[in-house]
Amino acid sequence: MHSEVPLGECVPPSTRYAVSVSLPKWEDNVDYEKGESRVVDRMVSGYPRFFIAKPIQALVTALKDRFALPNETAMLFPSIACAKRCVAFIYDQAPKQHSGDADYVMPRPRQVRIVQHVVEPINKKAAAKDAVSNALREPVSIYCVLFPEYLFPLAKQYWQHTGDGITARLADHCLHIARINEEVEQDVKPYSPFGSGGSSRRKQGSGYHRASPNVLTPSSSVASTPIPEVFSPGAYTARSPVDEGALSEIGLEADAYVEERFGRNLNLKYATEMKAALRRRIAGALSDEEQKQGAQVERGVAGLSPDDVYLVSTGMGAVFQTHQALLAINRRKSVCFGFPYTDTLKILKKFGPGAYFLGQGEGGDYEELERILERHSQDADEEPILAIFTECPSNPLLKTADLPRLRELADRYSAALVVDETIGSFANVDVLSWADVVVSSLTKVFSGDSNVMGGSIVLNPTRSHYSSLRAAFGAQFEDLLWCEDAVFLERNSRDFMSRVPRINANALVVAELLAASPKVLHINYPKFTTAANYERIKRPTADAGYGGLLSVDFVGGEDASREFYNNLACCKGPSLGTNFTLASPYTILAHYAELDWAAQFGVSPNLVRISIGLEPRDELLAMIQTALDAIPA
Questions:
Q1: Which end is more exposed in the chain, N or C (fewer Cβ atoms within 10 Å of the end residue's Cβ)?
Q2: Which top-level enzyme class is recorded in the Swiss-Prot or TrEMBL entry (predicted)?
């Protein structure tokens, strides 16, 4: 079991691309939300959609130095479509979020703009020594959205909600090529192009130039948005100054050697094949070798193929891309049923015409959902509801919706049903049989190692919306999962089906221990929370269980939660579904600015969420009991 990791360090420890960060004390989480320097300044990593990773920060610094005007900053994206959506979001949200607390002056037309940055080594032989560069046959383009610094919070919202930003591994690749090019250029030129100053360094013949600005048409979903200006510097090579602290050449080379030499990762030139293997794995079309190892999964849907699986860079990217595909079919309102992970609701409300939110996800919310669907189908001033989004189970309350009932309503009113199965995972639950679309965060238990982000979208070929969804994805979907991230997802998920039952068993005994304690006010866990609904979708196999996530509230309120959390001898930080136990004061991290709002839906500000891992069961139980004992009677 991981002992407590120092504040601000990577979780897991000593992991270059760690998905989490250590916030070991209750007060650390509060001070993080307040932006206190004692916490923020010590963070070497963080959850990637909330914390911009150090390699990405270094690449932003380099590109700002080349392209930005005074008092401008930037966000980096892997495609022009992502960048244009960010620009559209800024122009759309600046007037909507204008207030005394967030004084977003409406940017002028073309003040928010996009620069294409092409990454290609000058010396192919030098680059070929690197495992990544040797595998890549084409230049890599990064799209830099530049804007006044005061708009950074809006751009950060887009980055966080959509998961569209570049990954740390991609940023490291760009920095590595920049280093190679700098060394080559220093060999052939008597000066370094990276002295002091900004745009004045773009010397004739050095590879820096700007073509005449090309005006690109915004996507159809943002046709009313001011058109951004896009500079196309052409096929120049990347020669950006590098933060030495952000990149360790020896470390990267050693990592690549170890991974390939000992067979844990395949060579990156097989990234396409590894993505195909991931799609097969998620579709349930296992390889002969996986079947020999005892892996079993049945998605329960006739005609499902790996072609119905789409891989994206983050779990929220799966939600966002699905919402975008639905909006491309019909630009209408959706319904969010049940209290979801925070960014899901933000996506539904901020992109498109908005959404209804039924935050209890049980009881009278079913009748209210039916009234909304009926009103929109009958009222001439309203358009039919586009889709119903729900999580099974939900995060953090672990509620499970009545999927047969939602399916009947969706069919009756021609709405799509989108289900997020991240918490349950397809090893434990069958939600695809009921849904039009299933989305999931592969960052969580599918990967388990907490060192890579990813997401998946699965379309149900037996549902009426299938053809239109396939057409929408065919028209707009981009494969932006970076090759190195695909490599690690494939490696980490090979034993997914064998890990989940062990996590299920560990979580069950921990949940039962907590449920029996008189110090516990309430425990959220699928076996205890809307249990009948969960049992309907639980797979009828011996290995299927209730997942590894639970959340708990204590009789003593905040003081009791603080004592319990501070005395847990495990890793503590954001994320879940890790192979090791990971805890967080969830509501503090996810809803610090809206605690009263979350509380009305049963999400207590004192909630402690625990993601159970693979540690020995007796050690887990002893750890939980010690933390319980620390709470005063």
A1: C
A2: transferase
Predicted confidence (pLDDT) at residue 429 exceeds the cutoff of 50: yes
Q: What is the dihedral of CA 387, 392, 394, 397, to 10 degrees?
A: 140
Domain with 113, as residue range(s), is 54-246
Residue showing tokens 């996530």: 549
What pLDDT is stored for residue 153 in this prediction?
93
CB-based contact 241:62 (threshold 8 Å): yes
Q: Are residues 533 and 419 in the same domain?
A: no
**CATH number, domain with residue 581:** 3.90.1150.10
* Residues 308, 196 share a domain: no
Beta strand segments in 67-158, E: 72-77, 113-119, 140-148
Cis peptide preceding 393, ω within 30 of 0: yes
Q: How many domains does the chain have?
A: 3
Task: For residues 53 and 625, give the distance between their C-alpha atoms in angstroms, rounded to a whole number.
Answer: 36
**Domain termination residue (choose one: 478, 494, 510):** 494
The answer to whether position 37 is within a domain reads yes
* CATH for 314: 3.40.640.10
| Stronger pLDDT, 185 or 90, i.e. the higher one | 90
How many Å apart are CA 247 and CA 172, to the nearest integer? 7
Q: How far apart are CA 512 and CA 537, in angstroms?
A: 22
Assign 367 to helix, strand or coil: helix
Check: CB of residue 226 under 8 Å from CB of residue 219.
Answer: no
Q: Identify the pLDDT of residue 128.
A: 61
Regarding whether 471 and 519 lie in a shared domain, the answer is: no
**CA 471 – CA 474 distance, rounded (Å):** 5
pLDDT in tens, 4-19: 799 999 999 999 999 9
Same domain, 461 and 528: no
Same domain, 41 and 105: no
Per-residue burial over 605-633, b if 16 or more Cβ lie within 10 Å, else e, is bbbbbbbbbbbeeeebbebbeebbebbee
Within 8 A by CB and 6+ apart from 264, the residues are 258, 491
Helix (H, G, I), strand (E, B) or coil at 55: helix
Q: Which pLDDT band holds residue 362 (cuts at 50, 70, 90)?
A: very high
**CA dist list (Å): 172 to 47, 479, 566:** 17, 20, 35
